[in-house]
Specification:
Elements lengths: L14 H15 L6 E2 L11 H14 L15 H12 L10 E4 L2 H7 L9 E6 L3 H10 L2 E6 L18 E5 L11 H14 L2 E5 L25 E6 L1 H4 L7 E4 L6 H13 L5 H10 L2 H28 L3 E3 L5 E5 L6 H12 L1 E2 L1 E2 L10 E5 L4 H15 L2
Parallel strand pairs: 1-11, 3-4, 3-5, 5-6, 6-7
Antiparallel strand pairs: 2-8, 7-8, 9-10, 10-13, 12-13
Helix pairs in contact: 2-9, 3-9, 10-12
The protein binds D-malate.
C-alpha cells in the first residue's frame, strides 16, 4: 500500500479548521468572554418559510406509500432543474435540463470535477483565493500557477497572454475579496480560455448578492462562455442552505465529452441530493421564496453596510461588501493578517479570517463576513471602533 504523498504538500489543516481551533482554545481559556464570529462565511438566518413548507410537504410525501420515493436521479430531479433553467432564462441564458446537475454544494463539485481532468494540466488560480481550489489540486499533484489579485488591479486580475494555463478558476463575486467582474472583465477571460483551449471553472456561489444588473451573475452571460466554462452555484449563501446542502453545476453540451463524463462520474460516485432538500431548493424560486430570500439577503447587505461604515469611520481601507457578503480590509498599522487576527480576538473577541490564509497576496488583509446576526454585527463593530480609536 502506498499513500497519496501529495497530501504531505498540503498545509497541516484547512484554513477554517485552524481558525476554529484557535477560537476554541481561546474560549476554553476565557469562558467568561463573549466571542463574536465573523470568520467563516456561514449564514445565521433560518431557512425561509417557503422552503420550510416545501420541505415539510416533502417529508409527508415520503411517509406515505403512494408518494414515497427511493433513490432519485443522481443528477437531480427534473422539477428543480426546471426551476434553475427558468432562473437562467431570466438572464437570457438558455440551458438544457441535462446540462444542469444537482449536488450537495459547490465545494464538493469544485473538488470532484477534477476527476475529469488529467493530472498533466496547469492550473491557474488568482491569489488570494478560496483555499479549496488550491488544496484539491495539490491533492491530485497538479501544477498550480498564480495570478496576482491586488490593490493595483482592484483584486480583479486580467489574463496574462504570456502564461499558458489549462484550468482556470474564477470566483465572482469573489471570495475572499468581494470584487466583482464586469462583463468586459469576464470577456477577457473567456477570450483567453477559447484561444488557449483552456477551461474556466466559474464559482458563482455569491451571485445572489449582485444588485447592479449590469454585472454578470453567470459566466454564460458572456458570449462564447458555453464553449469554455463550467459553472458552479449553491443555495448555501443565497438561501441559507449551508447546513441543508444543495447546489448545482452547469456543464454545457458545447464542452463536448465533459457533459457525459460528468454524468458518468456523478452516477457512479454520487447518489443524489435528498428529495426533501431538492423540494426545499425548488421553493427558493417560487414567488414567496424569492421575496423571502431577498429579505434575508437585504439583512446581510445591511450588516455589510454597518461594517463598511465602521471601517470608513475608522479610516481603514477596504474592498467588497457592496455586492458580496465579504468585506476585505487592510490591517491597520501594517499588522500581518495573523497578528491582526490575534489582536482582535484577544482584545475584543471578534473573529475574522486572516487574508494570508487565502494566499500570499492576502497578507496584510483581513476578511469579515456580513453573515452574522444584526445584534452581533453591531456589537462587533462597536468593540472594533473602540479598539481602533484607542
Ligand atoms: C468561506 O467562509 O470562505 C466559506 O464559507 C467557505 C465555503 O463556502 O465553503
Amino acid at each position: 500500500m502506498k499513500l497519496n504523498e501529495n497530501y504531505s504538500n498540503l498545509k497541516e489543516s484547512y484554513l477554517f479548521s485552524t481558525i476554529a481551533k484557535k477560537v476554541n482554545d481561546f474560549s476554553a481559556a476565557h469562558p467568561d468572554k463573549k466571542i463574536i464570529r465573523l470568520g467563516i462565511g456561514d449564514v445565521t438566518l433560518p431557512l425561509c418559510k417557503a422552503v420550510v413548507n416545501a420541505m415539510k410537504s416533502a417529508v409527508e410525501e415520503m411517509g406515505v406509500q403512494s408518494t414515497f420515493r427511493g433513490y432519485g436521479p443522481e443528477q437531480g430531479y427534473d422539477f428543480l432543474k426546471k426551476a434553475i433553467k427558468n432562473y437562467y432564462a431570466e438572464k437570457n441564458v438558455n440551458l438544457e435540463s441535462d446540462e444542469i446537475f444537482i449536488s450537495d454544494g459547490a465545494k464538493s463539485d469544485l473538488g470532484n470535477i477534477l476527476d475529469l481532468f488529467d493530472k498533466d494540466n496547469t492550473v491557474l488560480v488568482p491569489d488570494p483565493v478560496y483555499p479549496v481550489y488550491v488544496d484539491t489540486n495539490i491533492m491530485a499533484g497538479r501544477k498550480i500557477i498564480y495570478i496576482n489579485a491586488n490593490e493595483e488591479n482592484d483584486f480583479l486580475p486580467s489574463p496574462d497572454e504570456s502564461i499558458k494555463a489549462d484550468i482556470i478558476y474564477i470566483c465572482s463575486p469573489n471570495n475572499p475579496t468581494g470584487a466583482v467582474y464586469t462583463k468586459e472583465g469576464l470577456k477577457k477571460w473567456v477570450d483567453y480560455a477559447l484561444k488557449n483551449k483552456a477551461i474556466i471553472l466559474f464559482d458563482a456561489a455569491y451571485e445572489a448578492f449582485i444588485t447592479d444588473e449590469t454585472l454578470p451573475h453567470s459566466i454564460y452571460e458572456i458570449e462564447g462562455a458555453k464553449n469554455c466554462a463550467i459553472e458552479f452555484c449553491s443555495f448555501s449563501k443565497t438561501a441559507g442552505f449551508t447546513g441543508t446542502r444543495c447546489g448545482y453545476t452547469v456543464v454545457p453540451h458545447a464542452l463536448g465529452r465533459l457533459n457525459k463524463m460528468w454524468l458518468r462520474r456523478q452516477t457512479t460516485k454520487f447518489n443524489g441530493v435528498p428529495y426533501i432538500v431538492q423540494r426545499g431548493a425548488e421553493a427558493v424560486f417560487s414567488k414567496d421564496g424569492r421575496e423571502e430570500i431577498q429579505t434575508n439577503l437585504n439583512y446581510y447587505r445591511e450588516n455589510a453596510k454597518i461594517i463598511a461604515d465602521t471601517l470608513t469611520g475608522c479610516g481603514i481601507k477596504f474592498f467588497g461588501g457592496k455586492f458580496s457578503p465579504y468585506i476585505w480590509l487592510k490591517c491597520p498599522n501594517n499588522m500581518s493578517s495573523w497578528e491582526f487576527f490575534d489582536y482582535i480576538l484577544t482584545n475584543i473577541q471578534v473573529v475574522g479570517t486572516p487574508g494570508e490564509g487565502f494566499g500570499k497576496n492576502g497578507e496584510g488583509f483581513f476578511r469579515l463576513t456580513s453573515f452574522g446576526s444584526r445584534e452581533n454585527t453591531i456589537e462587533a463593530m462597536k468593540r472594533f471602533k473602540t479598539l481602533i480609536n484607542k
